[in-house]
Write a structure and sequence with these properties.
The chain has four helices and three strands. With about 80 residues, it is of the alpha+beta class. It has one domain. Strands 1-3-2 form a three-stranded antiparallel beta sheet.
Length: about 80
């Protein structure tokens, strides 16, 4: 958990691509991110931590575990 996370409200357990992108920016893990940008990373980065069975369907969106998403971006060095 980053210092920034400790100073903010509790994190949701799951985020979709839009709310995940917004959260990454809010936490300062990226300067800017859109849902499309996060989706692109999910399709192109071989280290993406979620497989097709790791998403939780929520309405018309797919949700992923917030902590795994944050850990991925905290350790990610490649930018594409």
């Amino acid at each position: 958990m980053t210092e920034k996370q400790q100073d903010t409200e509790p994190l949701p357990l799951y985020v979709n691509f839009k709310t995940g992108a917004n959260l990454l920016v809010k936490l300062g893990l990226v300067e800017h991110m859109t849902r499309q940008g996060l989706r692109k990373i999910s399709l192109t980065d071989p280290n993406w931590p979620f497989g097709e069975n790791d998403y939780l369907p929520m309405g018309r969106a797919l949700a992923m575990q917030t902590d795994r998403l944050i850990e991925f971006f905290e350790s990610r060095t490649e930018r594409n």
